Amino acid sequence: MQPGDVTATCATIDKLWAFCGYPPKVKLAERLARFVEWRLGYETERLEFS
């Protein structure tokens, strides 16, 4: 760990569910996989045009 890293959290999305009126449709693991795929593609494109 690096200085300043958070060692533990107590995050909850209960208020988000109440605000939106429904739970998320995409599981966190799937969302993270999509983000990583997008980010790797973005970096590849950025490097090709540099």
Task: Indicate the topology.
Elements: H1 14-20, H2 28-48
Q: Count the strands? A: 0
Computed over alpha carbons, the radius of gyration is: 17 Å
Class by helix and strand content?
mainly alpha
Largest sheet at a glance? none
Q: Percent of residues in beta strands?
A: under 5%
Please give the share of residues in helix: 55-70%
Please write the string of helix (H) and strand (E) elements: HH
Please tell me what the overall shape is: flat
Concise structural overview:
This protein has a domain at 23-48. 56% of the residues lie in helices and 0% in strands. The protein has two helices and no strands.
What does this entry look like structurally?
This protein is mainly α. It has a domain at 23-48. Helices cover 56% and strands 0% of the residues. It has two helices and no strands. The longest helix has 21 residues, at 28-48.
Kindly list the characteristics that best describe this protein.
mainly alpha, 0% strand, 50 residues, flat, 56% helix, 2 helices
